[in-house]
Amino acid sequence: MSSSKSPRRARRRLESLGLGFFGPRRGELPRFGKSGYEPFAMKTMLGRRSSRAVLVLVLGALAGCGGAKSEPREPEPASSASGPAVAPASSEKVKQGRDLLTARKFEEASQILAEARQDKPNDPQAAYYHGVALEGLGETEAAKAAYERALELDGALLEASQNLSALLLEQDSAEQALAVADAGLKNAPKDPGLLANRALALGALGSDEAERAFETALAARSGDGWLRYYYAGVLTLHEKNDAATAELKKISSDALKDADLLIAVSELYGVLKDFPSCVQLFDRALSEKSSAELLVRRGRCKLGTKDLSGAEADFRRATTESPEDPMGYFYLGKHLVAQGKAAEGKKALTRAVELGPETPFGKQAKAALSGK
25 near 230, Cβ under 8 Å? Predict the structure, then answer.
C-alpha cells in the first residue's frame, strides 16, 4: 500500500472536514468563518458505518451507532467463503445463543456461548457468535479476541472477517482493519462488505489507493449511501470537489431517510461550497425533526448563499427552540455584530456566556465580547 500521508495526519484532515457521524456533540465548538460556514470539528467514525455480517446488522450496529436500524429478522447462518453455507448452528448451545442474540439478550447469549466454546474449543461458530454477544455488551476487546479466534479456526469464515475489520475501524486501527479485510478478500474477492471495509480503512489511512478501492466497493454496492458519502469525503480531501459533489448527487432520496446520513451529506455540501444543496437538505432534516442545532447548521449554509435575513431568522429561531442553550445565542450574536447591529449582538453574546460560561460557546462568546 502506498500512502503519502501518515495515518494520524490523514485522520486530522478527515476531522477538519467533519466527516463521520454528525449527531449532537456538545464538547466541540463549531468555528465561525468568513463565509459563516466552517465544518463542525467532529471525530471521524468511519468504523461506525463499516460493513458487518447480517446478524450484527439485524441487531442494529452493536457498537452504538445512531443510524436507522434494520427490523429484526431471523439471522442467516455463518458461512464459509470456501464453500456452501455451513449448518445453521454447529451445536444446540450455539443455536440457543444465536436465538438470544436475535432477541438482544446479550448477557444470556454470552453465557451460553461461552459454555459452547468450553464444550467445543475448536468450534469457529461458537467463537464468532460469542464475539457478537460480547460486542453487544460493549466488551470490545473480548469481542475482538473472539473474532480473531474464530478466524484462527476457520480463516474463511466471512462474517468474522467482516465484524473484526469493522470493529478495528471503530477502534481507529485502520492498518489492522485493512490487513483483516485483505485476508478475508483472498477467500471472497468480491464480498461487498469486505470491499467496503477495505475502502474505509484506506480512506482513514490517507492512502493513494483509497479512490480506486471505493470505486470497486461501490461497484458491488452502489446503493450504499454511507459508503458513497465517505468516497465523496476522500475526493474532497484530494481536492476533487466537482467529483465529490457528483458522488453526493448519486445518493438516493431513500438512502437519505437515514437522518444521520442526511445531516452528514448536508454538511459535506457546505464544505464543498454547494450551499444551495446544503440548505435544501437541512430543509428536509428540519421538516422531519426541528432542533436548535439543525437550525444553526442551516443558518450557516444560508450565510453561504448570501441569504443573510434567512440565516438570522434561523439563529433567532434556535434561541426560541432551545432558550437555555448558549449555542443559538452565540451564532445570533456573532451574526448581528457582523451586520453592524453591535448592541443587539453583544446582548446575545452576553446571554450565551450567562447560559454556558464553561461551554465552548460561552467561552467563545466571552472572547468575542472582550475583542479577542
Answer: no
